[in-house]
Amino acid sequence: MKLVAAASAVALVACSADEGALPSAPDAAPDAEHADAEARDAATRDASQAPDAAPDAGPPVVPDIDAIAWNAGPSVGYGVAAKDSGNPAGESMFVAYAGYNVALDGAKAWATALYKAWLQPMGVRYIWAVQGPAQSNYASLEIGNSKIAQAMLPLVSPKTKTVLIAGHSSGSFVAHELLNQLATGADPLSLTKGRVVYFNLDGGSQGGAQSTGLSAGTVSRLRKAYFVAPYASGTGTYGLNLSDMQSLGNTYGGFFQVDSNAAGCQSGAKLCLHISLVITKPHNPAGADPVLDYQDFAGRPVTTAYLSTKAAEAGLGP
Residue 42 falls within a domain, yes or no? Predict the structure, then answer.
C-alpha cells in the first residue's frame, strides 16, 4: 500500500489601489510534517506484520480403495457388491460384469484393478462388481440388476459425467438386462440417458431370454456402445466371439479390435485371447483361468486398452 501525502500551498493575491500584494502563506507547520512521517512508518510496519497467505493445501487426498469395504447382501442385489470409493476427482459410475461362472471375489478384484489403473483419475467414484452368470447364456436371470438400478438413480447428479458399463464374455448378457431395465421403466426420469457408455468385451448378442439381448431402443439412449474383439496380430488368432461382435457392430456401430499379441497366447488359443480383455498376460497361454485371471494382477496388469482407445471419443474424462 502506498500512502501519498501532498501538501499544497495556495497563494492568495489581492490587489488594490492602496495596498501591495499579500505575503505568501506560511510553510506547513513542523507538527504536521512529523504526523505524516509517523503515518507512513505505521503503514510500513502494518504491511510487514500482515500474516502470510494460507499455504496451498495441495490436491485432495484420494482414499485408499482397498481400505473401503464392499457392501453386499439382499439390499445390494444377488451376486452384486457395491462400493463408494470417495474419489474426489468426480462422481461417475462403473459396473463390472464378470464372465460365466466367475465368483464375486473375482469381479471385485477386476473392478478394483481397473479403478486403480484407469478409472480413478477419470473421475469414477461409485463401483458395482457383478459375479458371472451361473449359466453361459444367463437363462436363469438370477443377478440382482434391479437393485443396481435402484441404487444408481439417486446418485446421479450434474457431476455424474459417465455411467460406464463393461460386460466380459457371458457377463454381457447380464449387462444387457440392466440396460434394458433402464430403458423400459427403471429410469422414469431418464437420468442415465446419454450418460451410459457400454463396452461388450468379446461377449454375446443374445442370451437365453429376450431381456438379455439388445434393441435399437435400448442402444439409442446410450452415449456410446462398443463391441470389442481381441486378436493376436502375430498369429492371426481371434477371441471366442468375433462373429457376435461384428454382427452387433454392423447393427449398432462401435465394433473395434484390440491387438492382444503381447498377451503371449499360443496360436489358435481363442480362450486365452478371450480373457486377454481382462488381464494383459493370462496365466495359461493355451486357455484361461477364471480365478487367477480375474484376481491375480501381480506382474500382469489389468487390461485397459479398450478404455484408453475410446476415451476421447466417448468422453470418459473426469
Answer: no
